[in-house]
Write a structure and sequence with these properties.
With 101 residues, the chain is mainly α. The chain is built from three helices and no strands. Helix 1 runs parallel beside helix 3 and helix 2 runs antiparallel to helix 3. The longest helix has 39 residues.
Length: 101
């Protein structure tokens, strides 16, 4: 249970950092990349535990590291994709509104 808490906190921290350094962070909330990171990290942890990578002392580190890496990557990808997409849509919508007047 402690492993889940540590992995969730680390993934959430990666999500917060991904939101903080994104230049389009004003287009989406701070919890979006953190939430995606936590969900992705915990799913990877569950899958790696189900596969049995914690049974051997030589592979017991894989669920920890892989979960954190996948969580961080999911946070960065979410922040980048959502930020750019929403910014583009906001600019298009603003241009449409300005052309009406």
């Amino acid at each position: 249970m402690v492993a889940l808490v540590i992995i969730a906190l680390t993934a959430g921290a990666f999500g917060a950092i991904a939101w903080a350094v994104d230049k389009y962070r004003h287009t989406f909330g701070a919890l979006l990349p953190a939430g995606v990171a936590v969900v992705a990290a915990l799913l990877v942890w569950i899958i790696t535990m189900a596969v049995g990578l914690d049974n051997n002392a030589g592979t017991a580190w894989i669920p920890w590291i892989l979960s954190m890496v996948v969580g961080g990557a999911a946070a960065w990808a979410t922040a980048g994709f959502v930020g750019r997409t929403r910014h583009t849509r906001q600019v298009e919508r603003t241009n449409q509104i300005l052309q009406m007047h």
